[in-house]
């Protein structure tokens, strides 16, 4: 099923010089965004382009937050997305942000019962390390919160 937000996103890409050929973006029966081919895509064939000028790069994020030099590019890009999401329709990136999933469920959301299934595995160790790193970034961001952002905004 086609969704107006997907159409707005595609129009935004095209109006900024991008293209989508032989693919279709639409939502499935559960409301999740999906990409489908509309024709055979040959090896090395260009079927979609997104101009670099509209990409949310580390440089774009660092320019938006010049005082936050002690943070990784990933953190700053996430923060930039939050900032742009808060702007709503005023944001240049609104058509893109509007099609992003509202929730992404990963192993980072595992409770202790779920963690029992991966106990004593490499995944458990990696997951605990990632959670610790995210918590450290969160605590550090709280001390350097950009104007107009709240603690709730950065609870990813």
UniProtKB/TrEMBL annotation:
InterPro entries: SET_dom_sf, SETD3_SETD6_MTase
Single GO molecular function: protein-lysine N-methyltransferase activity
Superkingdom as given in the UniProt entry: Eukaryota
SUPFAM superfamilies (UniProt xref): SET domain (SSF82199)
Organism whose genome encodes this protein: Rhizopus delemar
Cited PANTHER family: UNCHARACTERIZED PUTATIVE METHYLTRANSFERASE (PTHR13271)
Protein name per its UniProtKB record: Uncharacterized protein
């Amino acid at each position: 099923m086609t969704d107006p937000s997907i159409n707005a996103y595609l129009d935004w890409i095209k109006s900024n010089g991008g293209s989508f050929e032989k693919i279709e973006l639409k939502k499935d029966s559960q409301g999740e965004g999906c990409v489908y081919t509309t024709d055979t895509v040959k090896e090395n064939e260009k079927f979609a382009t997104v101009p670099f000028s509209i990409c949310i790069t580390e440089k774009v994020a660092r320019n938006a937050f010049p005082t936050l030099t002690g943070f990784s590019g990933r953190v700053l890009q996430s923060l930039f997305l939050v900032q742009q999401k808060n702007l709503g329709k005023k944001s240049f990136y609104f058509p893109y942000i509007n099609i992003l999933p509202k929730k992404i469920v990963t192993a980072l959301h595992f409770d202790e019962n779920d963690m029992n299934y991966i106990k004593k595995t490499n995944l458990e160790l990696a997951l605990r390390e990632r959670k610790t790193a995210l918590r450290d970034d969160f605590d550090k961001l709280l001390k350097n919160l950009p104007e107009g952002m709240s603690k709730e905004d950065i609870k990813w």
